[in-house]
């Protein structure tokens, strides 16, 4: 519909410079420039390298998105941007660009939460989100179970990782196996040829007295690394495919089990899975199987919308416009640890009190 | 605009003179302060951003995070308004400000590069830089700059290395805009609006980057 909000979204919380344009729940453009190759040789995302890459890619990516969408910036109804959480220096580039763009074009500005955006992006794939939606967000930076009665202003954390994010565990195991960075895609590929039952790796926080919805992948990571080292020390070959399959099974088993349990406990009949790890084929298959058994409808966006991108930010921004949520002001700042409960960052006037977030001192100078 | 140093500064120049200018010194809030500063000077001058025909921005050298705020803001303005964006070395603008304050050449300017280093350059006169900007420890360049007045916070921070340290302490966008207007009027080419980092990035992957544990 032509009267649905036309919103441009900017995402720079980690290593992808993403600019997306949506009209309501329709995706018009999804331009992404990634610095992942530059980080590969360091085995993880280097904040200063990511920030430098964002600065270089920012304006060209905005211009590419506008061209792809075939719209004029003058027609936009709003500019949305990831205000946090994420890497402070990386976020700052996107937030500064969004403010400048909104100011120059005289458009409303919406600083939004990265995690809520990961959930909202599914509207572009499967239409409006059911309310409430249960969401499992899994990536290199986060592993959370979230209950979202209203994606624009009510997102409740049920559980999260107490140590490593799920994607981080994939990266670390890939490193131990000398498979390079990022680890997710290569482990997924090798696991398809391995036996997921070959090695019984531990399922973290799965005891009856453990927190029902929290995750822990640190013990699993150590256990896998020890197993590999023991093989090597004994002079035996490491069965890489079986290790990959068994490790991956341990991760997705816990993720899907807890997510389905949360849905049942909360009486929610939809499960949304987002974040980079949602691209994992085994996670998708097992979630499908378990959701079907439990009578839960599974919604997983296509892989390109699961990883960080600007379209997800635009999707949430469009929802903010549609629901008349208060706008952010020109003092909007990047907040590297923006809590998931803050779905957006309204301006001081909208709030009635000063709501300026200090950027954490870390990462400011490198 | 310039955000390469702890000063967050913006000014509006009409081709003849600076008509509005503002600056705040706060090394940790460049991102929050710049747009409100721009908005303030435009309001003071009674114009909107559409009236601007050229954007000039300090390209550093400067500690990185703040520096990028000015550069990405300038580049985005340029794209949104379809106007040219010009880069100027932040040290050149500081030298220009020092010259207008009466400092005669030769002299040098230095800004704080953190990590006990300074960004610096030498000037024949306040419009003419002698060589490329560099980043060094004060003690390592004290001999080379001996006998010269050195302007800027980088000099004032290390009086033992720079005995003739003086103001201005910080760059002002007014000086930057004036220098840009002068060079544009003379038909000189300015720099591309790209950062002058002078240091390679620290290639360290932080432990648990971007972990978000809502508790
Ligand atoms: Zn993400």
Automatic annotation (TrEMBL), chain A:
What keywords were assigned to this record? Acyltransferase, Cytoplasm, Iron, Metal-binding, Transferase, tRNA processing
Q: What does the record give as cofactor?
A: Fe(2+)
Cite the record's Basic and acidic residues compositional bias ranges: 351-366
Q: Which reaction does it catalyse?
A: L-threonylcarbamoyladenylate + adenosine(37) in tRNA = N(6)-L-threonylcarbamoyladenosine(37) in tRNA + AMP + H(+)
Q: Which residues bind substrate?
A: 137-141, 171, 184, 188, 280
Cofactor binding, note field: Binds 1 Fe(2+) ion per subunit.
Q: Does the keyword Acyltransferase apply?
A: yes
EC number per UniProt:
2.3.1.234
Q: What GO molecular functions are on record for this protein?
A: tRNA N(6)-L-threonylcarbamoyladenine synthase activity
Task: Tell me the PROSITE patterns matching this sequence.
Answer: GLYCOPROTEASE (PS01016)
Which Gene3D superfamilies does this entry report, sorted A to Z? 3.30.420.40
List, for all copies, the residue spans of the domain called Gcp-like. 27-314
Location in the cell reads:
Cytoplasm
Question: Which stretches of sequence are listed as region Disordered?
Answer: 346-366
Question: Where Fe cation is bound, by residue?
Answer: 114, 118, 308
An example Pfam family from this entry, by short name, is TsaD
Function comment: Required for the formation of a threonylcarbamoyl group on adenosine at position 37 (t(6)A37) in tRNAs that read codons beginning with adenine. Is involved in the transfer of the threonylcarbamoyl moiety of threonylcarbamoyl-AMP (TC-AMP) to the N6 group of A37, together with TsaE and TsaB. TsaD likely plays a direct catalytic role in this reaction.
Give the UniProt family note.
Belongs to the KAE1 / TsaD family.
**PANTHER family under this entry?**
TRNA N6-ADENOSINE THREONYLCARBAMOYLTRANSFERASE (PTHR11735), TRNA N6-ADENOSINE THREONYLCARBAMOYLTRANSFERASE, MITOCHONDRIAL (PTHR11735:SF6)
In its UniProt entry, what is this protein called?
tRNA N6-adenosine threonylcarbamoyltransferase
Q: What is the lineage of its organism?
A: Bacteria, Bacillati, Actinomycetota, Actinomycetes, Kitasatosporales
TrEMBL record, chain B:
Alphabetically list the UniProt keywords: Acyltransferase, Transferase
State any single GO MF term.
tRNA N(6)-L-threonylcarbamoyladenine synthase activity
Coiled-coil intervals, chain numbering? none
* CDD domains, A to Z: ASKHA_NBD_TsaB
Organism domain of life? Bacteria
TM annotation in the entry: none
The EC number of this protein is: 2.3.1.234
Instruction: Note the InterPro entries from the entry.
Output: ATPase_NBD, Gcp-like_dom, T6A_TsaB
Q: Which residues form the Gcp-like domain?
A: 27-142
What single Pfam family name could you report for this chain, choosing any that match? Answer: TsaD
- Asked whether the keyword Transport is assigned, the reply is no
Q: What is this protein called?
A: tRNA (Adenosine(37)-N6)-threonylcarbamoyltransferase complex dimerization subunit type 1 TsaB
């Amino acid at each position: 519909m032509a009267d649905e909000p036309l919103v441009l979204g900017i995402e720079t919380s980690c290593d992808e410079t993403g600019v997306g344009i949506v009209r309501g729940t329709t995706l018009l453009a999804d331009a992404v420039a990634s610095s992942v190759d530059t980080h590969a040789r360091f085995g993880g995302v280097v904040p200063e390298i990511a920030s430098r890459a964002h600065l270089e890619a920012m304006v060209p990516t905005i211009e590419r998105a506008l061209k792809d969408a075939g719209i004029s910036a003058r027609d936009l109804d709003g500019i949305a941007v990831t205000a946090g959480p994420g890497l402070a220096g990386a976020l700052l580039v996107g937030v500064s660009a969004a403010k400048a763009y909104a100011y120059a074009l005289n458009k409303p500005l919406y600083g939004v939460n990265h995690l809520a955006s990961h959930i909202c992006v599914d509207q572009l794939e499967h239409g409006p989100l059911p309310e409430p939606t249960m969401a499992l967000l899994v990536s290199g930076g986060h592993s959370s179970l979230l209950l979202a009665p209203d994606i624009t202003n009510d997102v409740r954390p049920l559980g999260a990782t107490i140590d490593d994010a799920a994607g981080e565990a994939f990266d670390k195991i890939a490193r131990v196996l000398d498979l390079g960075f990022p680890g997710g895609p290569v482990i997924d590929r090798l696991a398809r040829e391995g036996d997921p039952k070959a090695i019984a790796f531990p399922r973290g926080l799965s005891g009856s007295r453990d927190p029902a919805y929290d995750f822990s992948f640190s013990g699993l990571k150590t256990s896998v690394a020890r197993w590999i080292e023991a093989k090597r020390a004994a002079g035996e070959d490491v069965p890489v495919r079986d290790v990959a399959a068994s490790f991956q099974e341990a991760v997705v088993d816990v993720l899907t089990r807890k997510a389905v349990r949360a849905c049942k406990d909360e009486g929610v009949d939809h499960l949304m899975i987002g974040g980079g790890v949602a691209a994992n084929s085994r996670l998708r298959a097992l979630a499908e199987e378990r959701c079907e058994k439990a009578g839960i409808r599974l919604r997983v966006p296509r892989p390109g919308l699961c990883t960080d991108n600007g379209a997800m930010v635009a999707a949430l921004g469009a929802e903010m416009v549609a629901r008349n949520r208060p706008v952010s002001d020109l003092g909007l700042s990047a907040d590297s640890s923006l809590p998931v409960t803050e779905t957006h960052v309204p301006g001081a006037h909208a709030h009635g009190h000063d709501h300026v977030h200090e950027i954490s001192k870390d990462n400011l100078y490198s | 605009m310039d955000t390469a140093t702890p000063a967050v500064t913006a000014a509006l120049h009409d081709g003849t003179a600076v008509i509005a200018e503002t600056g705040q010194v706060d090394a940790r809030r460049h991102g929050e302060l710049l747009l409100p500063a721009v908005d303030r000077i435009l309001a003071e001058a009674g114009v909107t951003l559409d009236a601007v025909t050229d954007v000039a921005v300090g390209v550093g050298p400067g500690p990185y995070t703040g520096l990028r705020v000015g550069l990405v803001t300038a580049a985005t303005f340029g794209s949104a308004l379809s106007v040219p964006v010009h880069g100027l070395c932040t040290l050149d603008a500081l030298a220009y400000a020092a010259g207008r304050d009466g400092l005669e050449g030769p002299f040098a300017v230095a800004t704080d590069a953190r990590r006990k280093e300074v960004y610096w350059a030498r000037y024949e006169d306040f419009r003419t830089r002698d060589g490329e900007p560099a980043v060094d420890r004060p003690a390592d360049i004290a001999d080379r700059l001996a006998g010269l007045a050195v302007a800027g916070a980088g000099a004032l921070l290390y009086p033992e290395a720079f005995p003739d340290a003086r103001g201005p302490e910080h760059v002002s966008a007014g000086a930057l805009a004036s220098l840009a207007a002068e060079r544009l009027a003379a038909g000189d080419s300015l720099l591309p609006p790209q950062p002058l980092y002078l240091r390679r990035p620290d290639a360290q992957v932080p432990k648990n980057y971007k972990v978000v544990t809502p508790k």
